[in-house]
Amino acid sequence: MHASQYLLLALSMFTCCDTSVGSDVSFGPNTFSDLLSALTDIGYSKAEALPVPRLPLSEAKTNYSTSLCAAACNFLGTILPNITSQPGSASYVGQEANYWSNQQAETLPSCRVQPQSALDVSASLLVTKFFRCLFAVKSGGHAAFAGASNIQAGLTLDLASLNIFHVSEDRTLTQVGAGNRWGEVYSQLDPLQLSVIGGRVAGIGVGGLTLGGGISFFSGRHGWACDNVRNYQVVLADASVVEVNEQSFPELYFALRGGGNNFGIVTRFDLETFPQGDMWGGMRDYPITANASLLTGLYNFANNAPSDPDAALIVAFVYYEGEYLANTDIEYAKPVVNPPIFNELMAVESLTSTMRITNLTDLVEELNVVNPSGFREIYTTATFRNDLNLQSKILEIFVSEVSGIKDAEGLLPALVFQPITKDIISYFGENGGNALGIAESDGPLILIDISFRWSNSVDDDRIIAAANHALGQSVALAKSLNLDYKYIYQNYASQGQDVFAGYGAANQRRLIDISKKYDPAQVFQRLQPGYFKLSN
Ligand SMILES: Cc1cc2nc3c(=O)[nH]c(=O)nc-3n(C[C@H](O)[C@H](O)[C@H](O)COP(=O)(O)OP(=O)(O)OC[C@H]3O[C@@H](n4cnc5c(N)ncnc54)[C@H](O)[C@@H]3O)c2cc1C
């Protein structure tokens, strides 16, 4: 018998593995022969050949976090060589460069797998479960903190090649592979005079944005991205590929609308599609002295927006190259210059303006340019009642926190206000309701996003502390004024924020129960540690 066949025999009897994940739990497949059978069952006939991991088992057993993943990676490199990238290879290096923040790009998995089909995702999941190798899933890679969609010494599934795009004949549905970025989606829809609810910056991935909520320029008319998914194609914890919609799996359909990466790996989103032509919008910069007028404009817009659901607004304050500035992003879903809803804000004198009639692709490309990759980043967030005094005081807190870190290299801190208006919230109840736990009677709400960018890792601790301190003080102030609100937007949250508690106790419990039903071994909670888990 050849040495490798002895090894195969040993492996076939081997039950993988005693690990820190808990040897009491079986993620399945349990033995190597089970794994080979499972792979053969889903169509990987090559698995019957000799896909022996090159790493000796004794070594594999000694170090869970690295060696077992190395074994998984060697195995995947054998059965799926074209889509498995080992460290040092050009494709591994290229994929690592495709994260927005440097903290994520500096996170180095044992290998990267770039599935080309749902079946590849399914096979990769079977393998990573067998080896108990911790994994992460990446769509557009815009989550800021390390480990959100990449994993040190684990296995990263990079969905970038799942990039199908197909519009139904009746033009009411667009099927979008989970690895697409919004710029790619809009640039194909704009020529058809169609659109979908998605991100406002070209480089954001369809996957993360849609699973966490998804604020769009058209949210006043249709709600958030998660409210506009008619069907999800998902690889579940048992590696089966299912179509999830309100009829087929109503519980999962609820859970995926806000549940993040906790329920499965979504391989395709089928999005509600509507006619959309050119629109009016752009960015305006102002001196910081315009702050009071802009905050008043924001306050009134948040209250009045339901009178004109075509309007969308972001108000931001930044510190850039030695001075504070204010900025608005004003968008209108029709090709109408200066619609009355924006009269108050447009009356504020700006330093610069890019307001124009154009298409969505152009607008999201513009915002992509001002949000470049290649920096260290933190996003952190809270939601408050709409109150002018509170918003003014939060700006003071921001200015005070930034004053202590101004010397940091490449610093660009921003305080961003976005209204969650009553008309937006009215769509959260569509299709049986999403999981976010926000009632229309709670609106209008103001979402704040404190986002700091900087260049040098030596400044990490103090900048992260400043951002967290600014948020903590803002929340404390809101509480003291009875203007706080429970919701924490997953897509802007920092590591450690208790996102699911913010959905309300009943929704959090419901999500946990659904997760236990469809993922009894808790694969997506325990083997995929990154991002926001259901119970912190
Ligand atoms: C510059 C910038 C602009 C932004 N603009 C907006 C905006 O306009 N509107 C808005 O609502 N938010 C916005 N965000 C926030 C954005 O929605 C989140 O950062 C989101 O997580 C990014 O999605 P992604 O796919 O690019 O990220 P990734 O980092 O790839 O994924 C984020 C999380 O989702 C999980 N995930 C991704 N795809 C899948 C999948 N198919 N199946 C299972 N899990 C998956 C990942 O595992 C990860 O945990 C912005 C963020 C940035 C940095």
From TrEMBL:
Q: Where is the signal peptide?
A: 1-19
- Taxonomic classification, please? Eukaryota, Fungi, Dikarya, Ascomycota, Pezizomycotina
Q: Which UniProt keywords apply?
A: FAD, Flavoprotein, Oxidoreductase, Signal
Under SUPFAM superfamilies, the record lists: FAD-binding/transporter-associated domain-like
Q: Which family does it belong to?
A: Belongs to the oxygen-dependent FAD-linked oxidoreductase family.
Which organism is the protein's source?
Answer: Lepraria finkii
- UniProt KW Signal keyword: yes
The protein in question is named: FAD-binding PCMH-type domain-containing protein
The record's listing under InterPro entries reads: FAD-bd_PCMH, FAD-bd_PCMH-like_sf, FAD-bd_PCMH_sub2, FAD-linked_Oxidoreductase, Oxid_FAD_bind_N
Database matches in Pfam families: FAD_binding_4 (PF01565)
Q: Where is the FAD-binding PCMH-type domain?
A: 105-276
